[in-house]
Amino acid sequence: MTSPMDARGFRKLTARISLKTRKRMLRSRKFGKKESDERGITEDFVVWLARRSHGSVEAIHVDSGESEHGADIELWLRGGGLLLGFRLQAKCLKPNSGSRKPGSYQSLFDTVGTSPDFQVDKLISNTPSPLIPAYLFYNGLPADPVIPSDCCSDNEWRKDLGWLGITVAPAQVVSLLKDITPRRKTLGHVLPDSLPLPCIAYCENDPYSWHFPPGAMPLRAARTLDFIGVENIIFIRDPITSAGSEAVERAAEQEEFQISDSYNDFPYLSQILEGNLSTDTEMPPVRYLMIWDAGLRQP
Predict the structure, then answer these.
(1) In a domain, 2, yes or no
(2) Which residue segment(s) compose the domain that 178 sits in?
(3) Does residue 97 lie within any of the structural domains?
(4) Alpha carbon of 144 to those of 138, 148, 225, 240: distances in Å?
(5) How far is CA 250 from CA 66, 131, 225, in A?
(6) Is residue 298 part of a domain?
(7) Beta 166-170 vs 132-139: how paired, if at all?
(8) Is 6 within 8 Å of 294 (Cβ atoms)?
(9) CA distance readout (Å), 57 to 31, 37, 40, 52
(10) Over the stretch 30-43, which tens digit does the pLDDT of each residue have?
(11) What's the predicted TM-score (pTM) here?
């Protein structure tokens, strides 16, 4: 048996990618290029994650309906007999011209096509349970912000490593901001309820992290999300790997989590995991589908 990249590996790799994202956006700004190219940055993010994960990440280019449904990426964390899914909408932080201030997310509250519906509300309403709707923020920060978050602050942010290059925030939190003036939201509006992407699957401030069973990345991620206020977190039981799983037992013991047996409600997911994806299978309405497998597998 071999062990693919687990939660600590996720933390290290996404920290490097966050730094690369921040540097890319700063270089684009320096040379007068369009730094808010969300599609290009998302494509690079997916490619970097897939290529440098030692086979732990499977990425599929779907490109079906982001403008209608409000999501760029569907990401599944797999490990310990559990699956935890996300629908992610990507947004870029646009620095203020000629300023070292963080700037604002100028397209954060776009509407969908010609309708008056906000993209964030469409993301929430069109994300089927148990997937978690969230935002993936790309931050080309010209200077380190002095802003706390629900997770950690000060040197724990590892700002020198650029961990704030990519942050994650629950869509429900973002939706609440649309009625708050000013209309354009800055990093200061979203960061208090956000997490650096590297912290999602492995939080060093969680006193129980060291005691989790191997491959339990979905359980680690759920504990971190629960800490910043994400409610109704539901795992899908992975029938391929859940038998005798310590992580499944741990999740079942915690009243803030639920375990669903809705594996077959996502045919594309089950077919990919079982290696028999059909060309006729309906794929999710996103640009990219990604599965990070942190469990044990055959070489």
Answers:
(1) no
(2) 7-293
(3) yes
(4) 14, 12, 24, 44
(5) 35, 20, 16
(6) no
(7) antiparallel
(8) yes
(9) 33, 24, 19, 9
(10) 665 555 578 889 99
(11) 0.89
